[in-house]
Amino acid sequence: MAPTTETEFQEALAELLDGAQANGVDVEGGWDCRIDAPDSVYGIEIFRVEAGG
Question: pLDDT digits over 1-53, tens only?
Fold first, then answer.
């Protein structure tokens, strides 16, 4: 089910990153993410931040 709140979105993203990292996927980097809506391409960048930051 798709998230309906920002909190749910953040939780789903954390779960995705945690699972990918546990499976040895390098989750840091940048990607274009295309969704089904017309002209909807998002730039996604993931990078590690210092704890508490």
Answer: 899 999 999 999 999 999 999 999 999 999 999 999 988 999 999 999 998 75
Distances (CA, A) of 29 to 18, 32, 44, 45: 15, 11, 8, 6
Under 8 Å CB-to-CB from 31, ≥6 apart: which residues? 43, 44
State how far the Cα of 38 lies from the Cα of 44, in Å rounded to an integer. 18
Give the number of C-alpha atoms closer than 13 A to the C-alpha of residue 49, restricted to the C-beta side: 5
Query: What amino acid is encoded at 50 in this protein?
Result: E
